[in-house]
Automatic annotation (TrEMBL):
Its EC number is 3.4.11.-. This is M18 family aminopeptidase. Its cofactor is Zn(2+). It is an enzyme of class 3 (hydrolase). Keywords: Aminopeptidase, Hydrolase, Metal-binding, Metalloprotease, Protease, Zinc. GO terms for biological process: proteolysis. GO terms for cellular component: cytoplasm.
Amino acid sequence: MPKAPNADCITRLRHFLRASPTPWHATHNMAERLEKSGFQRLDETDRWALTPGERYYVTRNDSSIIAFQLPQSTLASLRMIGAHTDSPGLRLKPNATQHAAGWLQLGIEVYGGALLAPWFDRDLGLAGRVHVRHGDGRLEGVLLNVEQPIATIPNLAIHLDREANNGRAINPQTQMAPVLMQSDSATLTPLLNAWLSQQHGLDKVEVVDFELAFYDVQPPALVGVEQELLASARLDNLLSCFMGIEALLESDGEQGALLVANDHEEVGSASACGAQGPFLGDVLKRLNAQVGGGSEESLIQLIQSSCMISCDNAHALHPNFGDKHDERHGPAINQGPVIKINANQRYATNSATGALFRDICREAEVPVQAFVTRADMGCGSTIGPITATEIGVPTLDVGVPQWAMHSIRETAGTRDVGYLTKALTAFLNRPALG
């Protein structure tokens, strides 16, 4: 069988996807890789002392991250890449324990616009963030990742629902509680304590609160006779986070560059660490104060001299549902990154930012495509329009084409990973944005 293109890059990507079942894990893994590459960690509660030519990163809520490299001279512009760390899925409710028919189940709520049907009959793990209280009263947040298949959501047999293939609605409140254990008395807390002991050696702590989500433990896989496809959970949008990190680390470091990966995009971005919140704006103000002009006017000049590429996957032309695309705007998998356009500003691209990206792709010798949704269908959105609105930075939306967006398992092209990474690297290295 032929080896996948960009094999080393794809190997790193598969590892990142598997190790990042939640936004907290994704942010932790991105931070770890940045530190290994020489980026210095900043704390928002500290006074910053930034040095021209150095590289830094900062996190908020442990689920959003901003990394930046500074030029040797005064910071006059930034090449920004935006993505998001969260994906649709099933989150645990606070009082999750419930029992039915002699089984321990856990109550869930749906996070974001998840495609529900693919969640049935999957091997599910559990991951997220848990806050514990130590014996001395100290509170601590720790990451938890139960990688074993500890749960499943069983389908109802076709014999008991003859209409199952005729568009039956799914009720997540009553029909999607994962099954964990054959017991009519077991509860979640002892299980959490056991997992915390196994993973962190925390034997004498009290679980105070948690943010936990189920996920499919099936690892990412290369699919297709020539391994031209990558199948995995959370490609939307960890794939963009990965390509942003790759581009930042591959860039020459001559220009001011910034990567922001926000949490909560799938639920509207309205949070302190989301794109509608002040995280990016706060960082830009501090950059301007220390290595920019320092005034309010120079901050506006910095923003207007910069550019943001919002990276979020695009809908690829589906071989079984070709009628869901405008026939002139159906991006093909493995044919290059996609410029996303919408006249109603669901995407932030305009002709100026679109032309810039096309020119970048030309110089990088990367093919480029365009996506516009059908005029008789609605259109999703990204952090692009939100960031442009909140910050005012010239912005465009791009992404790699994929199938099954918001499913528990999505599919994208292996060659497209290299294409967009190459284009983003060229963007970060570009001396002029005009």
